[in-house]
Amino acid sequence: MTPQLDPSILADITRVARQCFLEEDAPGYIDALENAVQQRTGMDFTVVLRAAHSLKGGAGLAELPGLQNLAHKLEDVLKAVEQEQVVELEEAWFLIEQSVEEIKFLLGQAWTGNVVEPNSELIRALEIFNSNLTEYKPDKALETDEKAQTNQNNNDFISIALQQDLEALLAEIEEMEEDTPVAIVVGAISHLCEEGLFLGETLNLPWLVEQIEQLEELANAAPPDLFSSAKEIFQTIRTLRDRHLNGEENNLARQPVISDLIKNALAEDLENCLR
Prior knowledge:
The protein has helices at 7-39, 45-61, 65-82, 89-111, 120-131, 144-174, 182-202, 206-221, 226-245, 257-274. By secondary structure, it is mostly helical.
């Protein structure tokens, strides 16, 4: 049986996650979304999509399900606009703008401790809009030099995302003191998993998704050696990242790391009880 976290620890994790989300993360996400609404063209859609995705993930960690649901549907509309699946752009941007305003309202309510559901009519409008999207068809007339430039830009972005953004998240946890409360460590790892999963899925990096899934299992199990075990996975991520950036394949089979950690933790607890 997998060890379960004490309810008081879970409550602490939720409290810390919600406070960090509302104070530190959400304002930046809102700024990015509001800038997109104002510009509508010429913006970096990667930044906008990451804001919506991170807003969705942060709301989930903070246990704000209504906000998470709205951010999810907003992310779908933004993806459709970015991929040119939208025929009625004005309608899309109207829904995006209304969603951002509703998100700001929900965040304001969360600040006061009042968790409310988003406007049901807006949710329904987003669902109908997303269900009527057209299939994306790439422009076959794209010139070779434009393709080459796009590939180069993608490579540059991947390099920055892995060497700077992801590295910053790993280093932030590694720099924590060994006696940091488990709720803080688990919250930080959960945030890393949200961002890492977004990068892995968006950039089509299955090796990163695989390692992040192991980290999620580790955070859920919260074994006594959580810190050291997480750092081992961090090192694996760095090794695979470097191999990827060097053009090497990362077809590594999934190792039973987490199951072994749980077994070891249970064995240690049993041994202590028998002494």
